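[step 3/7] fold_predict: job queued, chain A
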Amino acid sequence: MTVAAPVRVDTPIFGGDARERLTDVAQAALAEARAQGCSAAEAGAHLSQGLSVTVRLGDVETLEQTRDKGLSVAVYFGTRNGSASTTDLSPAAVRETVRAACTIARYTAEDDCAGLADPDKLARDIPQLDLLHPWNLGADRAIELARDCEAAALDLDARIRNSEGGSVSTYEGVEVYTNTHGFVGTLAGTRHNVSASVIAQDQSGMQRDYWFTVSRRPDALEAPAAVGVRAAERALARLGARKLSTRRAPVIYEAQIATSLLSHFIGAIRGESLYRGASFLIDHLGKSIFPSFVRIHEQPHLPGALGSAPFDNEGVATAARDIVRDGVLQGYVLDSYSARKLKMQTTGNAGGVHNLAIDTGNLGLDELLKLMGTGLLVTELIGFGVNTVTGDYSRGAAGFWVENGAIVHPVEEITIAGNLRDLYRGIAAVGNDVELRGNVRTGSILIDNITIAGS
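[step 4/7] structure written:
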């Protein structure tokens, strides 16, 4: 068992003047940057704390209590820039950090695209997004919940023979971003998680699977016992897995796996990938990539959602927008630097997308299976054989073979191969079993005719 320095995680860190102190630290950094002769500067300060515990076979395996703080500074002398960071928020350390950033900037090459976000893009009206829900969870209670989660899995069936652990974690943090355009933004939030991973065994061999629940609100989490039972059920369902012969067949990506398809798409339309010429979707703006029924969009202001944010990492206001409409690419994912490189405007995506979603149809997973008829249901992907430069796609996979709309047997040791262009064009339906445990929201996705490499 490893234990970090003790911290009271049952006391919210946002009481008193924590936000004010962070703002003062960031503003002090800007003042020092001005004194050093910078033409522009930005600073971000943060404070966070968390608790994480893992129990394996009833014994506490890890217990970590963390508390973190820091300051990052970026300075600009015209088009030269430099950055530095520190975990010491004392006045002397702030001054030294700014001096270090200024020293770096004096030695860097000029870059016409470097600089703060344009003032007219910065957030002015900050919506309240209900992101902060601290969990007054002490270490003893966290251990108890983790044990409940694991025990429920182990008790479900005698074939659950081993465990990789039941885990409980809680995190809360506050960040302040400010720049010399006069922007000051504060973002505070929480994230809580319960998970279990167990191993089932019978005469056919061993299989592992997991389940988890995550939310900003502790009262919105699934019960720990329910998480354990779900993990055990998934592991049991994989017993007796077989290989497949190589073939082409339709494939359903289970919702929690389907999120990766959208993540690969976003990676290909990120500004950095585009201006570096490292994307298979260069010059695809206004072109059809998906079937005409597909709409992919951002929803950054959903109350309480895990990907919600009123502004991006540069202070640029976030806004709902369509990235794909009627199957056609409407816009890229840009921060200020990549936008300037591409002679475009920032899309408020410094730091990534916010609650990316694909519109769903009316079919649940069972109905998607019936629609597919015969094919593969993928529940796990292995490895990362994705080339966003060419779109080539090859991932190890496991799941279930389906015939006449019903699961026949589990499947393992196969590879799904193709090109992302073909996969995206081959989307036939999106289920309404939406995955909400992250920043990408999608139901299960049915794709026609994919190569499945097996024995």
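[step 5/7] annotate
Residues 18-35 form the longest helix (18 residues).
The chain has nine helices and 17 strands.
exit 0
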